[in-house]
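tool=predict chain=A
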Amino acid sequence: MERRRQKEGEEEKGKEEKFRSDAMDSEDSEMMDTETAASGTNQNDVVKDLISLARQLINQGKPSQALQAVVMAMRTKGGDEAIFQSLHRARELYRNRLQANAAADQLACLFAECAIAEVQPCNAEPSPHDVVSPSIAPDSNETSILAETGRKQIVLDAFSDGSSFICLQCGGLVSNHRKDEHYAYWCCKI
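tool=predict ok
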């Protein structure tokens, strides 16, 4: 009988412990839910603070640090995957804009060449040290360093605004202010 009481007592203890355990689990899960909600709110506050910091850094002229703050905000909200997606999208936009700019530059270059060719006089007789006047277009078959590096528009702009000339000897783009020095020291064809 004593054994039976011990057994019943042990069963009671087991039930009490199970009840306490269930109650503790319930309290723990409620606390976890509360913490999750609190951390979600805290997480949103952190993201807002980081974005505000990024704006301040942009206004202070610190774009790299602003980018770091934005990346931290993205990581806080969406993890590394969000960062990779955003960077991938930014790269696509940059490439598309770069291609559009290249096409626009080529079109502008063609318009500039046409405009310069329209103004070109028919009876121009260059002397040995003559310079190309702003109304004469540079030879598009000649290759200059700027043209070779894809910056032919710079040559056309400088030429068309009259601030520079193209040396007929070497084909170089030279500032009008340095004409004498160019012929005296720099022209490789004289």
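Residues 2-59 form the longest helix (58 residues). Residues 26-38, 127-141 have pLDDT under 50 and may be disordered.
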